[in-house]
Amino acid sequence: MDVDELPIGRRVAQWRMRRKMSQQVFADRLGKSKSWVDKVERGVRSLDKVSTIQDIAAVLRIDTAVLLGRDAQPDSATERVDAVDRIRAALSTYEVALARPGAPLAVVPAGELAGRVEHAWITYQRARYPQLIALLPDLLGTAQRTHAHGPVSGRAPLVEAYRITASLLVKLGEADLAWLAADRAMAVATGDPVLVATAAVQLGHALRAAGRGRAAMSAVLAAAYRIAPPVIEYGTPPELSLCGTLLVQAALAAARDGDDCTTVELIDEAADMAARVGDGHDHHRTAFGPTAVDLARVTAAIELGERDAVAWHEKATTQYGWQCLPVEHRAGHLVDAARAYLQADDPAAAGRALVDAGRLAPAEMDRPAARDVLARVVRCPDVPPTVTRLATTLGVA
Protein backbone atom coordinates (compact mmCIF):
# COMPACT_ATOMS: atom_id res chain seq x y z
CA MET A 1 0.00 0.00 0.00
CA ASP A 2 1.25 3.50 -0.87
CA VAL A 3 2.30 5.38 2.26
CA ASP A 4 -0.16 8.18 1.46
CA GLU A 5 -3.05 5.67 1.50
CA LEU A 6 -2.23 4.45 5.00
CA PRO A 7 -4.54 5.41 7.87
CA ILE A 8 -3.22 8.41 9.78
CA GLY A 9 -2.48 6.24 12.83
CA ARG A 10 -0.18 4.02 10.76
CA ARG A 11 1.61 7.10 9.43
CA VAL A 12 2.10 8.32 13.00
CA ALA A 13 3.60 4.95 13.90
CA GLN A 14 5.93 4.96 10.88
CA TRP A 15 7.25 8.45 11.60
CA ARG A 16 7.62 7.67 15.31
CA MET A 17 9.78 4.68 14.45
CA ARG A 18 11.77 6.75 11.95
CA ARG A 19 12.50 9.14 14.81
CA LYS A 20 13.58 6.15 16.92
CA MET A 21 11.10 6.95 19.70
CA SER A 22 9.37 4.34 21.79
CA GLN A 23 5.64 4.68 22.35
CA GLN A 24 6.38 5.74 25.94
CA VAL A 25 8.82 8.49 24.94
CA PHE A 26 6.44 9.69 22.23
CA ALA A 27 3.55 9.73 24.72
CA ASP A 28 5.62 11.66 27.28
CA ARG A 29 6.51 14.34 24.74
CA LEU A 30 2.85 14.68 23.77
CA GLY A 31 1.63 14.72 27.35
CA LYS A 32 -0.48 11.62 26.64
CA SER A 33 -0.52 8.06 27.94
CA LYS A 34 1.21 5.17 26.21
CA SER A 35 -2.21 3.51 25.88
CA TRP A 36 -3.51 6.58 24.01
CA VAL A 37 -0.60 6.39 21.54
CA ASP A 38 -1.09 2.67 21.02
CA LYS A 39 -4.80 3.13 20.27
CA VAL A 40 -4.09 5.94 17.80
CA GLU A 41 -1.50 3.88 15.94
CA ARG A 42 -3.79 0.85 15.75
CA GLY A 43 -6.68 2.99 14.51
CA VAL A 44 -8.81 2.29 17.58
CA ARG A 45 -8.80 5.97 18.47
CA SER A 46 -9.35 8.60 15.77
CA LEU A 47 -7.48 11.87 15.41
CA ASP A 48 -10.16 14.43 14.72
CA LYS A 49 -8.71 17.54 16.35
CA VAL A 50 -6.46 19.75 14.26
CA SER A 51 -4.61 20.92 17.37
CA THR A 52 -3.75 17.32 18.30
CA ILE A 53 -2.45 16.57 14.80
CA GLN A 54 -0.34 19.73 14.97
CA ASP A 55 1.09 18.65 18.33
CA ILE A 56 1.96 15.22 16.94
CA ALA A 57 3.62 16.77 13.88
CA ALA A 58 5.66 19.08 16.11
CA VAL A 59 6.95 16.17 18.21
CA LEU A 60 7.77 14.17 15.06
CA ARG A 61 9.35 17.28 13.47
CA ILE A 62 7.37 17.01 10.23
CA ASP A 63 4.71 19.10 8.52
CA THR A 64 1.14 18.46 9.58
CA ALA A 65 0.40 17.91 5.89
CA VAL A 66 2.57 14.79 5.91
CA LEU A 67 0.17 13.20 8.40
CA LEU A 68 -2.93 14.14 6.45
CA GLY A 69 -2.52 12.19 3.24
CA ARG A 70 -1.72 12.23 -0.46
CA ASP A 71 -1.90 15.99 -0.97
CA ALA A 72 0.93 16.38 1.48
CA GLN A 73 3.55 15.21 -1.05
CA PRO A 74 5.89 13.90 1.66
CA ASP A 75 8.85 13.08 -0.60
CA SER A 76 10.92 16.06 0.55
CA ALA A 77 10.23 15.27 4.19
CA THR A 78 11.29 11.67 3.66
CA GLU A 79 14.45 12.77 1.86
CA ARG A 80 15.20 15.18 4.72
CA VAL A 81 14.89 12.40 7.29
CA ASP A 82 17.14 10.14 5.22
CA ALA A 83 19.71 12.92 4.95
CA VAL A 84 19.66 13.52 8.69
CA ASP A 85 20.10 9.80 9.25
CA ARG A 86 23.28 9.87 7.15
CA ILE A 87 24.67 12.76 9.17
CA ARG A 88 23.66 11.05 12.41
CA ALA A 89 25.54 7.95 11.29
CA ALA A 90 28.64 10.04 10.59
CA LEU A 91 28.43 11.60 14.05
CA SER A 92 28.01 8.13 15.56
CA THR A 93 31.20 6.71 14.04
CA TYR A 94 34.08 6.07 16.44
CA GLU A 95 36.52 4.16 14.24
CA VAL A 96 39.33 6.63 14.89
CA ALA A 97 38.97 6.58 18.67
CA LEU A 98 38.50 2.82 18.85
CA ALA A 99 41.23 2.05 16.29
CA ARG A 100 39.13 -0.68 14.72
CA PRO A 101 41.03 -3.01 12.38
CA GLY A 102 40.43 -2.78 8.69
CA ALA A 103 41.79 -1.20 5.55
CA PRO A 104 43.37 2.11 6.58
CA LEU A 105 41.85 5.18 4.98
CA ALA A 106 44.03 7.92 3.57
CA VAL A 107 44.68 10.89 5.82
CA VAL A 108 44.06 14.20 4.09
CA PRO A 109 46.68 16.89 4.87
CA ALA A 110 45.38 19.68 7.10
CA GLY A 111 45.83 22.28 4.38
CA GLU A 112 43.73 20.32 1.90
CA LEU A 113 41.13 19.64 4.58
CA ALA A 114 40.90 23.37 5.32
CA GLY A 115 40.04 23.91 1.65
CA ARG A 116 37.27 21.34 1.82
CA VAL A 117 35.89 22.97 4.95
CA GLU A 118 36.00 26.33 3.21
CA HIS A 119 34.00 24.87 0.33
CA ALA A 120 31.44 23.46 2.77
CA TRP A 121 31.02 26.85 4.46
CA ILE A 122 30.47 28.54 1.09
CA THR A 123 27.91 25.88 0.18
CA TYR A 124 26.08 26.52 3.44
CA GLN A 125 26.14 30.29 3.12
CA ARG A 126 24.76 30.03 -0.41
CA ALA A 127 21.88 27.98 1.05
CA ARG A 128 22.70 24.94 -1.07
CA TYR A 129 21.59 22.56 1.64
CA PRO A 130 21.05 19.41 -0.48
CA GLN A 131 24.63 19.67 -1.79
CA LEU A 132 25.95 20.22 1.73
CA ILE A 133 24.04 17.21 3.03
CA ALA A 134 25.86 15.09 0.46
CA LEU A 135 29.24 16.52 1.50
CA LEU A 136 29.02 16.37 5.28
CA PRO A 137 29.23 12.64 6.13
CA ASP A 138 32.51 12.24 4.26
CA LEU A 139 33.84 15.60 5.48
CA LEU A 140 33.26 14.66 9.11
CA GLY A 141 35.07 11.34 8.76
CA THR A 142 37.95 12.96 6.91
CA ALA A 143 38.28 15.75 9.49
CA GLN A 144 38.28 13.24 12.35
CA ARG A 145 41.10 11.22 10.76
CA THR A 146 43.18 14.31 10.01
CA HIS A 147 42.79 15.53 13.58
CA ALA A 148 43.78 12.10 14.95
CA HIS A 149 46.90 12.09 12.73
CA GLY A 150 47.84 15.72 13.53
CA PRO A 151 45.98 17.04 16.60
CA VAL A 152 47.43 20.54 16.31
CA SER A 153 47.04 21.21 12.58
CA GLY A 154 43.79 19.25 12.32
CA ARG A 155 42.08 20.87 15.30
CA ALA A 156 40.60 24.00 13.72
CA PRO A 157 39.28 22.24 10.58
CA LEU A 158 37.51 19.63 12.72
CA VAL A 159 35.92 22.33 14.88
CA GLU A 160 34.74 24.07 11.71
CA ALA A 161 33.33 20.84 10.29
CA TYR A 162 31.29 20.34 13.43
CA ARG A 163 30.16 24.00 13.34
CA ILE A 164 28.89 23.64 9.77
CA THR A 165 27.10 20.42 10.71
CA ALA A 166 25.40 22.04 13.70
CA SER A 167 24.31 25.02 11.61
CA LEU A 168 22.77 22.82 8.95
CA LEU A 169 21.01 20.59 11.48
CA VAL A 170 19.36 23.60 13.11
CA LYS A 171 18.08 24.56 9.66
CA LEU A 172 16.70 21.04 9.22
CA GLY A 173 14.84 21.22 12.53
CA GLU A 174 17.14 18.72 14.25
CA ALA A 175 17.98 20.73 17.37
CA ASP A 176 19.14 17.83 19.56
CA LEU A 177 21.45 16.45 16.90
CA ALA A 178 22.75 19.98 16.24
CA TRP A 179 23.47 20.23 19.94
CA LEU A 180 25.54 17.03 19.71
CA ALA A 181 27.58 18.42 16.81
CA ALA A 182 28.14 21.73 18.62
CA ASP A 183 29.11 19.86 21.79
CA ARG A 184 31.69 17.90 19.77
CA ALA A 185 33.08 21.18 18.49
CA MET A 186 33.34 22.53 22.03
CA ALA A 187 35.15 19.40 23.20
CA VAL A 188 37.73 19.55 20.39
CA ALA A 189 38.21 23.31 20.91
CA THR A 190 38.83 23.07 24.67
CA GLY A 191 41.97 24.93 25.67
CA ASP A 192 41.80 27.51 22.87
CA PRO A 193 39.53 30.43 23.91
CA VAL A 194 38.98 31.64 20.35
CA LEU A 195 38.11 28.20 19.00
CA VAL A 196 35.81 27.66 21.99
CA ALA A 197 34.09 30.95 21.21
CA THR A 198 33.56 30.01 17.56
CA ALA A 199 32.06 26.67 18.61
CA ALA A 200 29.90 28.46 21.21
CA VAL A 201 28.13 30.37 18.42
CA GLN A 202 26.62 27.14 17.12
CA LEU A 203 26.14 25.77 20.64
CA GLY A 204 24.03 28.79 21.54
CA HIS A 205 21.96 28.45 18.38
CA ALA A 206 21.38 24.74 18.94
CA LEU A 207 20.42 25.20 22.58
CA ARG A 208 17.96 27.95 21.68
CA ALA A 209 16.44 25.76 18.97
CA ALA A 210 16.08 22.98 21.55
CA GLY A 211 14.20 25.33 23.88
CA ARG A 212 17.05 25.66 26.38
CA GLY A 213 17.32 29.43 26.43
CA ARG A 214 18.92 29.86 29.83
CA ALA A 215 21.59 27.27 29.12
CA ALA A 216 22.28 28.99 25.79
CA MET A 217 22.65 32.40 27.41
CA SER A 218 24.95 31.07 30.13
CA ALA A 219 27.23 29.28 27.66
CA VAL A 220 27.56 32.04 25.09
CA LEU A 221 28.06 34.83 27.61
CA ALA A 222 30.85 32.87 29.30
CA ALA A 223 32.55 32.40 25.93
CA ALA A 224 31.98 36.03 24.91
CA TYR A 225 33.43 37.64 28.00
CA ARG A 226 36.39 35.27 27.96
CA ILE A 227 37.55 36.70 24.62
CA ALA A 228 36.18 40.25 24.94
CA PRO A 229 38.87 42.93 24.56
CA PRO A 230 39.48 44.86 27.81
CA VAL A 231 38.74 48.10 25.97
CA ILE A 232 36.36 47.97 23.03
CA GLU A 233 38.26 50.67 21.18
CA TYR A 234 41.32 48.40 21.01
CA GLY A 235 39.49 45.28 19.90
CA THR A 236 40.34 43.83 16.49
CA PRO A 237 37.51 43.23 13.97
CA PRO A 238 37.73 39.42 14.36
CA GLU A 239 37.58 39.71 18.17
CA LEU A 240 34.67 42.14 18.07
CA SER A 241 32.81 40.07 15.45
CA LEU A 242 33.04 36.89 17.48
CA CYS A 243 32.24 38.54 20.80
CA GLY A 244 29.37 40.54 19.27
CA THR A 245 27.86 37.47 17.62
CA LEU A 246 27.86 35.67 20.97
CA LEU A 247 26.15 38.66 22.60
CA VAL A 248 23.49 38.49 19.87
CA GLN A 249 22.96 34.80 20.61
CA ALA A 250 22.58 35.62 24.30
CA ALA A 251 20.12 38.41 23.48
CA LEU A 252 17.96 36.07 21.40
CA ALA A 253 18.00 33.52 24.22
CA ALA A 254 16.87 36.24 26.65
CA ALA A 255 14.11 37.24 24.24
CA ARG A 256 12.92 33.64 24.07
CA ASP A 257 12.62 33.78 27.87
CA GLY A 258 10.67 37.05 27.69
CA ASP A 259 13.43 39.12 29.33
CA ASP A 260 13.11 42.34 27.34
CA CYS A 261 15.53 44.40 29.46
CA THR A 262 18.40 41.94 29.11
CA THR A 263 17.62 41.54 25.41
CA VAL A 264 17.92 45.27 24.75
CA GLU A 265 21.10 45.62 26.83
CA LEU A 266 22.87 42.78 25.04
CA ILE A 267 21.84 43.85 21.55
CA ASP A 268 22.92 47.43 22.26
CA GLU A 269 26.28 46.13 23.49
CA ALA A 270 26.63 44.08 20.30
CA ALA A 271 25.65 47.13 18.21
CA ASP A 272 28.54 49.13 19.69
CA MET A 273 30.94 46.40 18.57
CA ALA A 274 29.28 46.13 15.17
CA ALA A 275 29.73 49.85 14.56
CA ARG A 276 33.49 49.37 14.86
CA VAL A 277 33.53 46.33 12.56
CA GLY A 278 31.26 47.66 9.83
CA ASP A 279 29.29 45.73 7.24
CA GLY A 280 30.68 43.51 4.51
CA HIS A 281 32.91 41.25 6.63
CA ASP A 282 32.67 37.61 7.63
CA HIS A 283 35.18 37.09 10.42
CA HIS A 284 34.91 33.58 11.91
CA ARG A 285 31.92 32.93 9.59
CA THR A 286 29.73 35.32 11.60
CA ALA A 287 28.80 37.92 8.92
CA PHE A 288 28.75 40.28 11.90
CA GLY A 289 28.11 43.98 11.41
CA PRO A 290 25.49 46.70 12.00
CA THR A 291 22.97 45.14 9.61
CA ALA A 292 23.29 41.70 11.19
CA VAL A 293 22.59 43.27 14.59
CA ASP A 294 19.53 45.07 13.21
CA LEU A 295 18.22 41.77 11.84
CA ALA A 296 18.71 40.28 15.29
CA ARG A 297 16.54 43.10 16.69
CA VAL A 298 13.78 41.89 14.37
CA THR A 299 14.02 38.32 15.62
CA ALA A 300 14.15 39.47 19.24
CA ALA A 301 11.10 41.69 18.75
CA ILE A 302 9.19 38.77 17.25
CA GLU A 303 10.08 36.57 20.22
CA LEU A 304 8.93 39.30 22.61
CA GLY A 305 5.71 39.86 20.64
CA GLU A 306 6.53 43.49 19.83
CA ARG A 307 4.92 45.10 16.82
CA ASP A 308 7.97 47.21 15.91
CA ALA A 309 9.58 44.10 14.41
CA VAL A 310 8.23 45.08 10.99
CA ALA A 311 9.71 48.56 11.21
CA TRP A 312 13.12 47.14 12.14
CA HIS A 313 12.91 44.69 9.24
CA GLU A 314 12.01 47.34 6.68
CA LYS A 315 14.83 49.57 7.91
CA ALA A 316 17.47 46.84 7.94
CA THR A 317 16.72 45.49 4.47
CA THR A 318 17.22 48.90 2.84
CA GLN A 319 20.73 49.30 4.27
CA TYR A 320 23.92 48.74 2.30
CA GLY A 321 24.87 45.86 4.56
CA TRP A 322 21.81 43.81 3.60
CA GLN A 323 23.30 42.86 0.23
CA CYS A 324 26.63 42.01 1.89
CA LEU A 325 25.11 39.26 4.03
CA PRO A 326 25.28 35.61 2.90
CA VAL A 327 22.28 34.32 0.95
CA GLU A 328 21.47 31.90 3.78
CA HIS A 329 21.33 34.76 6.31
CA ARG A 330 19.08 36.92 4.13
CA ALA A 331 16.70 34.12 3.18
CA GLY A 332 16.45 32.94 6.78
CA HIS A 333 15.69 36.49 7.89
CA LEU A 334 12.91 36.83 5.31
CA VAL A 335 11.21 33.82 6.88
CA ASP A 336 11.45 35.61 10.24
CA ALA A 337 10.08 38.76 8.59
CA ALA A 338 7.06 36.76 7.46
CA ARG A 339 6.42 35.89 11.11
CA ALA A 340 6.67 39.59 11.96
CA TYR A 341 4.11 40.50 9.32
CA LEU A 342 1.77 37.80 10.60
CA GLN A 343 2.03 39.27 14.09
CA ALA A 344 1.15 42.64 12.56
CA ASP A 345 -1.93 41.11 10.86
CA ASP A 346 -0.52 41.59 7.36
CA PRO A 347 -0.57 38.13 5.74
CA ALA A 348 -0.14 39.56 2.24
CA ALA A 349 3.21 41.12 3.21
CA ALA A 350 4.13 37.90 5.00
CA GLY A 351 3.47 36.00 1.80
CA ARG A 352 5.59 38.38 -0.24
CA ALA A 353 8.48 37.91 2.21
CA LEU A 354 8.25 34.14 1.80
CA VAL A 355 8.14 34.37 -1.99
CA ASP A 356 11.23 36.59 -1.87
CA ALA A 357 12.96 34.05 0.37
CA GLY A 358 12.08 31.28 -2.09
CA ARG A 359 13.45 33.23 -5.02
CA LEU A 360 16.65 34.04 -3.17
CA ALA A 361 17.24 30.53 -1.82
CA PRO A 362 14.76 27.81 -2.83
CA ALA A 363 16.20 25.33 -0.32
CA GLU A 364 15.47 27.73 2.54
CA MET A 365 11.74 27.34 1.96
CA ASP A 366 11.92 23.56 2.22
CA ARG A 367 13.12 23.58 5.83
CA PRO A 368 10.52 22.84 8.53
CA ALA A 369 10.38 26.32 10.09
CA ALA A 370 9.76 27.98 6.73
CA ARG A 371 7.11 25.45 5.74
CA ASP A 372 5.29 26.02 9.03
CA VAL A 373 5.13 29.78 8.43
CA LEU A 374 4.02 29.22 4.82
CA ALA A 375 1.25 26.89 6.03
CA ARG A 376 -0.03 29.66 8.32
CA VAL A 377 0.11 32.29 5.58
CA VAL A 378 -1.57 30.24 2.87
CA ARG A 379 -4.61 29.66 5.10
CA CYS A 380 -5.21 33.40 5.32
CA PRO A 381 -7.79 34.92 2.91
CA ASP A 382 -6.65 37.12 0.03
CA VAL A 383 -3.03 35.97 -0.05
CA PRO A 384 -1.27 36.71 -3.35
CA PRO A 385 -1.44 33.96 -6.02
CA THR A 386 2.35 33.69 -5.90
CA VAL A 387 2.07 32.45 -2.32
CA THR A 388 -0.49 29.82 -3.28
CA ARG A 389 1.76 28.64 -6.10
CA LEU A 390 4.72 28.42 -3.74
CA ALA A 391 2.68 26.38 -1.27
CA THR A 392 1.50 24.08 -4.05
CA THR A 393 5.04 23.58 -5.33
CA LEU A 394 6.27 22.66 -1.86
CA GLY A 395 3.25 20.51 -1.07
CA VAL A 396 2.25 22.68 1.89
CA ALA A 397 -1.44 22.42 2.68
Automatic annotation (TrEMBL):
InterPro entries: Cro/C1-type_HTH, Lambda_DNA-bd_dom_sf. One of its GO terms (molecular function) is DNA binding. Residues 12-67 form the HTH cro/C1-type domain. This is Transcriptional regulator, contains XRE-family HTH domain. It comes from Micromonospora inyonensis.
